[in-house]
Please model this.
Amino acid sequence: MNEHLAIPIVECGEPLVDIRGGTALLYGPPPECPQTAPDYCLLRSEVYRRLLRVQAALPPGLRLRLYEGLRSLAVQRLLFEQESARIAARQPELDAQQVHEQAAVLVSPPAHWDGTPNIPPHSTGGAVDIELVDGSGALLDFGMQAADWHRVPAPFCETRSPLPGPAARANRLLLSAAMEAEGFANYTREWWHYSYGDRYWAVRTRRSEAIYGSCTPAMISAASPVR
Model:
């Protein structure tokens, strides 16, 4: 499960772009909490290019909508703490390490249980939470919105979960096929989450190294708007 942790990261230095500078990709409001607002529309430039190719190959009338791209380590820590608190409240019989491990299923921790730093996928600018919308901007039926991840049972979030209805299952597979055709790797516990360039992507695509590490403050402040 944690084989990605052994993958070395050779940061390629690829810059970030801000999709709010253009109209090619749709994006929703800042997700989760107000602290996400400055960064959530930032992506590595190659990730942006690949998303445009995904969108061009979709069936007529469908478009991608970004839910979240870059997420700062501070926000990641906040979300992990919130998820840990929910799990501890639901399952008071768990000890602290078990709570940490359960929370890590849907929220990548900023640090592992032993205290060593982690590199959450969203901190690299290579991970995206993405949805499909129709010509009017309405979300396709996925059985849930990405924002509902902590309100539904974890198995319901899985890409190939049998729990949603037929239309939702078909739309999840449609998104998966379109994204994977352009080299993205799906985190199979979350139908909306795809990676390119990070450690998880490297494992899923059998690469010897990841090309994106956590984005530095300098990289974030240098992000340029797309044209």
Summary: The CA atoms of residues 111 and 117 lie 4 Å apart.
